[in-house]
Design goal:
282 residues; 5 helices; 10 strands; elongated
Length: 282
């Protein structure tokens, strides 16, 4: 056979093989793209579910997720029925393990409290409660305003101070209490997640003649600021920053009552008797 013809046939064979491989790859990618990905049935919320709810079969539905299911999701309703919700769930949202209390803990606010922490209720005014900025999951600082003990002038001695910082809000709502006349009234109450030491501090502040106010903060800002506090006198003097300067009450020392001394002679004995005036005794 002619050597030149053999070379041409060999090149034609290589080119045909390369073209066949390219066509195979293109057709294979088209077939793969057209094939539907595998889906997984996950347990989801059938409607909006509030914090503290104990899940039942009526609260659940299923959604299809393509690809690998997220970690912590559920595929069987038996795995979530009877568990309490520790964070609000929304309709169609897949239920995750970290949004539920441990099995057997039930529902309510207590199920949302981590071990070693406490829930402390704080009364707030209607503006804070109704405006809706204090919602579960938000982070707040606690400010107190009042007159410290021993202040001589209560008007000028009002002090505002940051008591606690970066506290998580567990719940916000109303509580029914009675006024001085025994009539029922609604009081705005916010439950904060605190340590046992912080709970003691909040309880002590709530029982004093001070006003408690919550200040909203960015939940990503977890740094504790060094806030010295300020007094009413600093505001009117133009010094709105810096530590609070409160003049303590001055102690008034009373003069010692006059003492009278009488010498009593009894025979050869002589004694001294001391007496105070009747006005000093009064």
């Amino acid at each position: 056979m002619n050597r030149r013809l053999l070379t041409i046939l060999l090149l034609a064979f290589v080119i045909a093989a390369a073209c066949s491989f390219l066509v195979y790859r293109m057709v294979g990618s088209r077939l793969t793209a057209g094939k539907p990905a595998a889906t997984t049935h996950l347990i989801a919320a059938a409607q909006d579910i509030k914090l503290g709810t104990v899940l039942t079969k009526a609260n659940l539905t299923t959604v299809d997720i393509a690809g690998t299911p997220p970690k912590g999701s559920f595929t069987k309703p038996e795995e979530v029925i009877g568990r309490g919700v520790i964070s609000d769930l929304y309709q169609g949202e897949p239920i995750m393990n970290d949004r539920l209390a441990a099995a057997g803990m039930g529902g309510g606010l207590a199920a949302a409290i981590p071990p070693g922490m406490r829930a402390c209720a704080v009364k707030v005014d209607d503006v804070v409660g109704v405006s809706g900025f204090v919602t579960p999951g938000q982070h707040v600082d606690v400010l107190i305003s009042g007159v410290p003990p021993g202040v001589q002038n209560p008007t000028e001695g009002i002090v505002s101070k940051t008591l606690l910082q970066d506290l998580q809000v567990l719940s916000a709502g109303t509580d029914i209490q009675k006024d001085n006349e025994g009539k029922a009234k609604q009081v705005q109450v916010v439950n904060l997640l605190v340590t046992p030491e912080q709970a003691e501090t909040l309880s002590l502040a709530s029982n004093q003649q001070v006003r408690i106010q919550l200040v909203l903060r960015n939940p990503l800002d977890t740094q504790t600021a060094d806030v010295p506090g300020t007094a009413m006198g600093n505001i009117f003097s133009g010094k709105v920053t810096g530590p609070a300067k409160v003049q303590p009450a001055k102690l008034v020392r009373k003069a010692a009552p006059p003492v009278f001394s009488i010498e009593v002679i009894n025979g050869s004995k002589s004694t001294q008797e001391k007496f105070t005036s009747p006005e000093a005794k009064q």
